[in-house]
Amino acid sequence: MSAASEEPATVAQPVAKPVAQPVAQPVAQPVAQPVARPVVQPVAQPPKAAVVAKPINLGLDVGTMNLVCARANQAGKIEIANLRNVFLTVDDVHIEGMDLSKISHARIDDGVFILSNDAYNFANIFGYRLSRSMQKGMISPEDINSTDILAVMIRELLNIEPGVKQGKCVYSVPGDPVNSKSNVLYHRNILGRIISEIGFEPEPLNEATAIIYAECAETDFSGISISFGAGLTNVAVVYKSIPVLEFALSRGGDWIDDNVAMAVGTIPNRVVAIKEKDFHLDRYDMGRKKERKVREALGYYYKNLIQFVVKSCLQELDRRDLDLGFPNSIPLIISGGTSLAGGFLDFIRSQVEENAWPLDLSEIRYAGDPLSCVAQGCLIKALKQ
Ligand SMILES: Nc1ncnc2c1ncn2[C@@H]1O[C@H](COP(=O)(O)OP(=O)(O)OP(=O)(O)O)[C@@H](O)[C@H]1O
Ligand SMILES: [Mg+2]
After folding, report:
1. Which of 140, 171, 243, 262 has a CA-to-CA distance to 218 between 20 and 30 Å?
2. What share of the chain is helix, strand, coil (3-state, %, to 5)?
3. Under CATH, to which class is 56-85+133-254+299-384 assigned?
């Protein structure tokens, strides 16, 4: 198929000057078709647009609880798809007689696993404890199958049709957590491997920096962002697209859920269900007694998390001793699923304003869509190149 380009010395090489050829030269193609099988190749198959189609580039947010993919459709609009990054091992679920063909699942070695949204629904209905392929922002060391399960879910989420040319996939990675010993090197490399096995050219991007890509075009991609996720809280300070500071704190929504569950004697899934439904940091008076207890505990742990994050940001800015004399004031962007609780923005504003920041903040605001802006920022980076 590439014989023409490999033999430049042969005289009969009209194709050898591609620069001079406008793209619309379909006649150049028939040579590549084996003459011996005319029946299989209907004549009425002109070279289709797919032949010259541009490779598809994607943004992928690989989160502890949510996997989110952003892509630009043909009209240039961003489309978002997402999956819960959770699973159940079939052994744990009495699933005899169930039709697995209607359930998102994976067979790995001798095991069968129910994946993503189906696993989440089963767990909520039957009170099972969900398993995670990731923990605290990175591949979970707890299950030997974590990596394989994550690979299946990512493949399902990207949903690439056969024949589509795959380009770049910019994927999110957390910063190294400053309050734990873990680091992101293994996780970053495993994801790079998974994405390249699917057929894309992988490129990692810090999760909080991705938020600046998605949200701060008006300030020339300068700003500070905090992503309150499930496993981690990620922070970045970015000046004109260049990260000045990136770090993570190993507390997030899971930390709240686990502590609340322990405090009031329930399982974390049940806490999540209450937290994601009309929860407000200062309003506990809803539902039955147990639910009211959960809501009150949620309020205390939420406020503690926010105070911890604000204090840690100030400490890190101070500790790194950066010269942050930005010429203009910059916005502070709040994002991530954990930030969606009612009263969150008001409380973080009050905590930020109580302290003197080494940066001049123009505003404190939410990202446009706190659940998908990391994937959108990754897509913007993928399309930039
Ligand atoms: N409406 C809501 N109110 C409160 N919390 C919410 C809401 N929706 C989602 N969450 C919580 O947000 C967290 C998930 O957020 P997000 O998708 O940003 O995290 P992630 O990207 O998967 O995790 P990480 O970035 O830490 O790896 C979970 O703890 C979830 O329970
Ligand atoms: Mg996240």
Report:
1. 171
2. 40, 25, 35
3. alpha beta
